Amino acid sequence: MKIGLIGGAVAWLGSIGALDPKLWRDTIARERERLPQQIREALAAGKRAAAQAEEDLDRDVRNAFGGHG
Length: 69
Description:
Elements: H1 2-15, H2 21-64
């Protein structure tokens, strides 16, 4: 049963071209090119989220201790 399922999965992957070595080379090359920009975007998003969290915390502390503004 398991061998049949594995065989079927491999046949399906082959039928959609997922086992083509050129596809994987092209995909890996493309991702290597995109990775630096994705890292920069993720770091920028993290910095924005940290700044927003700090603003929220400051506001909560001011409100908790009766501060103004």
